[in-house]
Amino acid sequence: MSIYLPIAELSVNIFLLLSLGGVVGFLSGMFGLGGGFLMTPILIFMGIPTNVAVATSANQIVASSISGTIGYWRQGLVDFKMGGVLLIGSFFGSILGVWIFSKLIALGQIDTVISILYFSLLTSIGLIMLIESSQVIRDRVRRKTVKRKIHYHNWAHKLPFKIKFYKSKLYISAIPPIIIGFVIGILSATMGIGGTFILIPAMIYFLGMPTSKVIGTSLFQIIFVTALVTLLHATTTFAVDAVLAFFLIISSVIGAQVGVLAANKLRGEEIRALLAIIVLGVATKIALDLLVEPSEVFNISVIRALF
Amino acid sequence: MNLRILFFIKLLVLAFISSASALVIGSDEEEIYIDANFSGKNLLVFGAFYSDPSQSRDDKSDILIEVVGPSEDVVVRKKESFFGFWLNSKSVGFYDVPGFYYLSSTNEITNEFLNENNIGLLNKKDTQLIDWSALNIDWGNIKNEKDKESFYDALIRTKESEDVYRKVNGEIDIIDGNLFRSYIEIPNTVPVGQYKVNLYLVIDNKISNEYSYNFIVTRVGIEEAIYSFSKNYPLIYGLISLLIAILIGWSGAEVFKRFRKV
């Protein structure tokens, strides 16, 4: 059974969409990742135009991050003030990101730039996950306990515009979170990701936030960044596909909840290693598309038509 | 249905008028609706040509059916290798090219004939270069004639692979020597808008008579409603998309909260 996507202007199998959303949702629930970094490239592989894949992913992440935030908020693990300061940066970052995005569409380079960005991102995530999970598995075999060291770079204390973040027990300058938010905003708008895997380490290592509050706070700010990105794309690139988003949201929200349940019962390291391999596989496919000589070197795009 | 009745009236009228040759056509559709389940349609075009009975209909009299879709602007880009990466580099803009083009004939038609009569897309002449003046083209920084042709060929090739440009012959049925009928395949990838059907009666390599009519391709259904809404009210569309995301995300968390407590 296939369904016609009005904005992507093509038909796709409905079960393929639901399983994509379900699997990505499951992984994001299990590992606390947004999942946009897998969703967008797989949508592109399915033949969905790059701009539609990016804009629609952003819309889907709004739903999954709301779902996630509620859980953390109930446990009091969201620092709203820090989220707000991050958002100031994200606001300007996503506006710049969507502007860059539409310029790249006009130049005909959007596919290439997105491919290169995704390749770099997925390769680094995949390698980090693979190394981390193999170390954990190895340590478990040797019956060692894993020690984690966290380095606090407290240069954030020396900058001006210092603000008290009571929830995170921090008294730091507003400049680093604004810059981090700005970068996340650009990435979110151009790649259709929430940016958790960049945001979380940045908040821990650069801002020195307590680990317990990091995930909830990052999810909280991602709701607003991706919401803004969705609106900006809907009004400038017209690339948000509501039908595609609907099916991805339904399946990913269910998948995410199942993933959270599974995370409490399963040992995650093997699955994490598997995810790392999937991520590296996607990265390889993207690299091949960039490096192998295409069978048709010409491509056409309609820039004006009646609608 | 009205068209058919009209067609037979025209046919009757024609039978009483004596002229060297005449042409009359009809079609079964004035409007084609494309919805989500549309998988293409065969548009029926039928008609009659009347020739002076004292003249024998020779083999050189041909029927040509041309269907031209709404115009669009297209950018053709060429990928080139930069340090191992295949990136879009040179581009050419073709303006006001038809989004759909179909040419059907009873016999093979020469490019010379088409060029002389200004029918169809640009055709390559064996000895001469293509005359680009008929098209509105932004060549960018491309000057070489061979490169120009490669871009134009790529445009035609891609449109042909999408089934929106077609050139066929022998698909017109001639019945009783004076009646003809043809099914034109309209794939579901066609652009919406007004289409023009041109019909030519060709005798001795000259157009002896021609006739034209229009039909419209429209998209219908919920998908079309969503598409036009997203273009006409982008902000409201974006807000609704967000609202759906918020509601489903929220209710997902609420529904599964109970499971987690168990």
Structure notes:
The complex is a heterodimer of chains A (307) and B (262). Chain A is mainly alpha-helical and 307 residues long. Chain A has one domain. In chain A, 70% of the residues lie in helices and 7% in strands. Chain A is built from ten helices and five strands, in the order E-E-H-H-H-H-H-E-E-H-H-H-H-H-E. In chain A, the strands form two sheets. Chain A has a two-stranded antiparallel ribbon. The longest helix of chain A is centred in the middle third of the chain and has 32 residues, at 110-141. With 262 residues, chain B is of the alpha+beta class. The mean pLDDT of chain B is 79. Chain B has two domains: 2-220, Sandwich (Immunoglobulin-like); 225-261. Chain B contains five helices and 13 strands. In chain B, a hairpin with a 3-residue loop joins strand 10 (172-175) and strand 11 (179-186). Chain B is flat and about 80 Å long. In chain B, the strands form three sheets. A six-stranded mixed β-sheet of chain B has the order 2-13-12-4-7-9. Chains A and B meet through strand 1, helix 3, helix 5, helix 8 and helix 9 of A and strand 5, strand 6, helix 3, helix 4 and helix 5 of B. Strand 5 (298-304) of chain A pairs antiparallel with strand 5 (71-82) of chain B, so a sheet runs across the interface.
Summarize the structure.
The complex is a heterodimer of chains A (307) and B (262). In chain A, 70% of the residues lie in helices and 7% in strands.
Based on the model shown, name its key terms:
A: 307 residues, mainly alpha, two-stranded antiparallel sheet, 5 strands, B: 262 residues, alpha+beta, Immunoglobulin-like, 5 helices
**Pair with the biggest interface:** A-B, 59 and 60 residues
Number of helices of chain A: 10
Oligomer: heterodimer
CATH architecture of the largest domain in chain B: Sandwich
**Helix content class of chain A:** 55-70%
- How far from one another are the termini of chain A? 27 Å
Q: CATH H-level name of the largest domain in chain B... which superfamily?
A: Macroglobulin (MG2) domain
By secondary-structure content and strand pairing, the structural class of chain B works out as alpha+beta
